[in-house]
Each structure stands twice: as C-alpha cells, then as structure tokens.
Amino acid sequence: MSIKKYTTFLKVVECGSITKAAEQLGHTQSGVTQLLQALEHDLGLPLMIRNRSGIVLTEAGRKLYPLISEVVACDEKLNRAVEDLNRSNMQTITIGTFKSVAINWLPTMIQEYQQFEPDIRFELTDGGYNDMERTLANREVDFAFLPLPTTVPCNSIPLYRDRLLAVVPADHPATAGKRCPIELFETEPVIGLLDYLDRDSRTVLTDAGIHPNIKYMVEDDYAMIAMVAKNLGICIVPELILSGNEQNVRIMELEPPAYRTIGIAFPANKTPKDSALRFSDFVSRWVADNMPDNEDKGVYPYVDCRSMERL
Description:
Blueprint: H1 3-15, H2 18-25, H3 29-43, E1 48-51, E2 54-57, H4 59-91, E3 92-97, H5 99-104, H6 106-113, E4 121-126, H7 129-137, E5 143-148, E6 154-169, E7 179-181, H8 184-187, E8 190-193, H9 200-207, E9 214-218, H10 221-229, E10 235-238, E11 249-267, H11 274-290, E12 299-304, E13 309-310
Parallel strand pairs: 3-4, 3-5, 7-11, 8-9
Antiparallel strand pairs: 1-2, 5-11, 6-10, 6-11, 11-12, 12-13
C-alpha cells in the first residue's frame, strides 16, 4: 500500500479540510480526494465523512489514525537511516589529523584523489595527539593520522619515518658542527610545547636521559620556531613541520638522530568502510611516491626569512 495515501490522509486530518490539505501538499483537490478514496478501498473501511464544515473521522478512522501515524513515522525514520548510511558508507570519509599532516599532506592528497572519486566528501578533525587518540578510541573517525605506536587499541599502518630536528638561532655556536648534540638541551634555554602537546621531543629527551632546561612553553610549533629566530632558545620539531616554514634559523640533525613514525590508525572493533580503505591505500602510495628519503643528512641549509629562499 502506497505510503503517499497514508501521508495524504494524515494531512487532511491535520488541516481538517481537503482543500487546505491539497494546497499544502501541492496537489489538486480532486487528486487528494482520489487518494483518500483509494485508501478507503484498500482498507475496505470508510475513514472520514465530508460535510460543509470539513471532515469528520469515522469510528474506523479514529481507531486507525494513530496506527497510520506510526507507519508514516517509521517510514520517515527508515528513510533517514538509509540516507545516513549511504552518506556514511559511500560518500563521507571522516579523518582525524594533526597539524603538520593537515597542512602539508592532506590538501594535495585530497585534490589528487578526487580526480578518481569526485563525489567523496571529506570531514577533517584536527588537534593534538591526545585529541586524535580520543577520537580513535571513541570511534568518531574512519581513521586518524598518528605517530605510532599509539596509546589506544587500533589497527595501524606505518607510512613515514619523520625526522625530529633541532632548531637553533642562525648564529648559535652549535652551528659550527655537523649535528646538534642532544646534551645541549640541558644547558641551553629550551622552547617547548605545552605538556599535553609535547610528546615527540619529550620522548626523545627522556630516552636520552636528558632533563631539558625548558624556559618557555607555547601551543604551536611555528611559534617555537619564531622564538628561536629571536634568540630566545632552541627547540626540537618534526621535519614535516618545517615544510614551507621560512625562518631565520639553522635546522640541524640531532646527535643521536631521532624520529617519529607517522601512520594511519583505524579504530579497533570497527569494520572500516570501503571508501576509507580505498583512500588509505591511496595515502600509502602517495607517501611512498612523494615523500623524499629522510635518512641522516646532518646539517640543513641556512634559512633566511628575509629572502624566503634556502641559501
């Protein structure tokens, strides 16, 4: 039985008039009348009596009205659920990411991928590592970019070994060497991220038995680099952060060298969507094809923010 007959019946009862119901439904009065007659024929029962003052429900109409309302409500709920599933399973990929990936990888990745699947919709959630792990644990994303290993259960794919590098003022004595000794972070003023953001450098320093002389704490990697450029101290940042970041500083390999492994993490106990799996496979191939070899290279070129060129 057509749901259209049910919705027409409910609208006539709501309006108390076939004429008003026809106006709201965008139908002719005769069209509404025909739908009501067809419904009564299907049920084998008269549902309403038409008179000059409008319509009056019959006893059968009064008894069936709440049941018909439930049918229409269930149909609307079903349609919403189907739309949500279609949007979730076929068109939308929800990704958690931290800043350096959001800035330096994802825009190009998405632009290139949409040449193959132009109808895919992306929802990006960015934040610190703790934020990404929370969204992963709560299964709020299809997958997240995170340093591996994570602190939450997940299924992960390693992508890239990203160097952690020392950033020092351009005229700092340490620039005379090929690499920056990790011990320097015990004696020099250190600019660090706030505790809940600073996982990479803290891990490196802790593993090396270094107690950093932290004098300043900020919320942003680029703010740290800007402070180094003003001779306020030194810091450690991932190499990916430095892409396109022009500052009057010297960037050096740490001694001993240090890394973070960037990977993709899927929520545990959640079947990945086909669309998310296809995009994650593209991401893996994109990183392999586009990211340079980042083995130990020692000192980086001098970077001058005034010329915006690497000399």
